[in-house]
Design brief:
Elements: H1 5-12, E1 13-14, E2 26-27, H2 34-43, H3 48-55, H4 59-71, H5 73-84
Antiparallel strand pairs: 1-2
Helix pairs in contact: 1-4, 2-4, 2-5, 3-4
Length: 85
């Protein structure tokens, strides 16, 4: 059975207590920012399995990052734009 977005997010994504705000969410236990995964996803052909392999993460963690992105797209896009500037 496929996990819902909420289940994936609660299992893999946490807010960074040192960098508050939804744009700074990260993958639990890794410190990898969601925005970094989304940026890599967008830059490398939108292949979740490739991103998971690149960051040595389970595919479900990347799927959780994508689910989180769908809920917080504007702030993550702003974070990506700020990083690129």
């Amino acid at each position: 059975m496929a996990s819902t977005d909420a289940e994936l997010i609660s299992r893999y994504v946490e807010l960074d207590p040192d960098r508050p705000g939804p744009a700074e969410a990260r993958i639990i236990g890794t410190g990898v920012p969601v925005w970094a995964l989304i940026g890599h996803y967008q830059a490398t052909g939108r292949d979740p399995a490739y991103v998971a392999a690149s960051y040595d993460l389970p595919l479900a963690a990347v799927e959780a990052a994508l689910a989180y992105y769908r809920q917080h797209q504007a702030v993550i896009e702003a974070r990506l734009a700020a990083n690129a500037a």
